[in-house]
Design brief:
The chain has three helices and no strands. Helices cover about 40% and strands about 0% of the residues. It is mostly helical. Helix 1 runs parallel beside helix 2. The N and C termini lie far apart (about 35 Å). The chain is globular, with a radius of gyration of 14 Å.
Length: about 80
């Protein structure tokens, strides 16, 4: 689920309640709330907010390896 726009966090919350995977970032929205023009500080803030919401809903974040598998990427080659 890509939750873009001012209501992005609310959409991400709904998607998590439905058991879907979400992604967030400032490329999707720069607003902290749908009803105010307050801007987020950056991607870190958005990830921390959605991680806290996921924890409150009993969900957990995917590990990098789990994410790569979900999107069909190979594991990085060790140097």
């Amino acid at each position: 689920m890509c939750a873009a726009g001012r209501a992005g966090h609310y959409l991400a919350t709904t998607a998590m309640q439905l058991g879907l995977h979400v992604r967030v970032g400032t490329e999707d929205t720069v607003y902290r709330y749908p009803h105010r023009d307050e801007l987020v500080e950056g991607n870190r803030e958005m990830v921390e907010r959605v991680a806290a919401t996921a924890a409150a809903l009993g969900r957990r974040l995917a590990t990098p390896a789990e994410y790569r598998e979900m999107v069909g990427l190979r594991a990085p080659v060790a140097a």
